[in-house]
Sequence to fold (196 residues):
Amino acid sequence: MMNEYKSLAVQYLSGHILVAKPVSPNPVAFDSPAIDVMTDLRQIYAAVITPGTPMEIANTYMMQRGVRTLLVMHDDNSLAGIITATDILGEKPMRFIQERGVKHNEILVMDIMTPLDMLEAIPLEEVMHARVGNIVASFRESGRLHALAIDDNTVGSPRICGIFSWTQIEKQLGMTIQPTNAAHSFAEIESVLIAH
Fold:
């Protein structure tokens, strides 16, 4: 079987040789099509995890994959919820420990994920006509850093077909976007604290 294949020609290296680097994500502007900043799950496998996985393993998995969001999937491949780095590194675990009296390493993904019935998704039809600025405006209004896109026009059940991420959009815009509800400087934070 292997006899059908010839070995490839090689060249000896010398002189000034560079190593290729991956091309950075397409630069975009607020007026660019929203689809340009969507992680398209029809082309890239989603990073997924099961509800019963320990939270610490989910955190390690995120770091290994270089992602900040995992889709939480039931055994039948249906969506159970979503877990983000903010969920894991924020105050949710501490609240759960206080409420349930469990140890940090006993917290499971299902304990701190955002469950399906609390998630919203943007219809793919909307995304197809939207601009990056519309996605940013939606993030600001919801106060979230991630959004899902859903395709209702599939055979059988609707499918989550994309993920939008605040950090990914910032990366592609090449700038930091200030969330409107956040204090922008230490002075503002101080004045907010003094006022309360």
User: Anything to note?
Assistant: The two ends are 77 Å apart (CA to CA).
